[in-house]
Amino acid sequence: MLTANPAGSYQLELEKEHSRITKKLQEKTEEFSLIVHHAVNNTEFKELNEITKPNILHFSGHGNSNGIMLQNDDKNGSKLLTANALDALFEYFADEGILFKAVVLNACYSEDQAKAIANHVPYVIASTTAISDEAAIAFSVGFYFKLDAQGGNIEQSFRSGRTQAVTTGAEKSYFALFKSGERIEA
Fold first, then answer.
1. Could you tell me the residue ranges of all domains in the chain?
2. To 10 degrees, what angle do helices 42-52 and 83-95 make?
3. Is residue 36 classed exposed, middle or buried when 0-12, 13-18 and 19+ CB atoms within 10 A define those classes?
4. For the segment 154-176, what is each residue's pLDDT rounded down to a tens digit?
5. DSSP state letter for 27
6. pLDDT tens track for 10-34
7. Which of 106, 107, 120, 137 could serve as 90's disulfide partner, Cβ 3.0–4.6 Å?
8. What is the architecture of the domain spanning 2-184?
9. Which of 16, 61, 56, 17 lies closest to 148, judged by CA?
10. Which residues, 6 or more positions from 181, have their beta carbon under 8 angstroms from its beta carbon?
């Protein structure tokens, strides 16, 4: 789990999300290991994925139509990681043999970024619009609850997360799932 909540941006409840995901996975520590890095910049985003080689990359933070928002190098502001940059990163990761099963972009307006990543990763999840902190956390809780219960079925986990978010007032259309490079209806 990589997070970023740069100075000057609305403060997200990233610790709360981390805590609730941990709670959902705590009984399955032999199957799941949640590694969390906060306040990542673009260099750390690349290097931490190279070092940990996760099966599932979960990013939580801000996003807009131009990219996902990371910390800047000095950690006193933000820098966007664009769809073009994400395409290059995940192409590089694939060339390096880092085989993600899924990427979860729990950030507003992350659909374009997900499309770029989906060229290199079997499953990518994104938000199509702005979502509330409450809906983002609910999505994560529902996703990891089902992932735990179903042994890793991404499509079922996506539906569980989306349903959980809808119970907080989100719409089903706020979430997108990409499989093998194409957006699918799940």
1. 2-184
2. 20
3. middle
4. 999 999 999 999 999 999 999 99
5. G
6. 888 888 888 988 888 787 766 778 8
7. 120
8. 3-Layer(aba) Sandwich (3.40)
9. 56
10. 118, 119
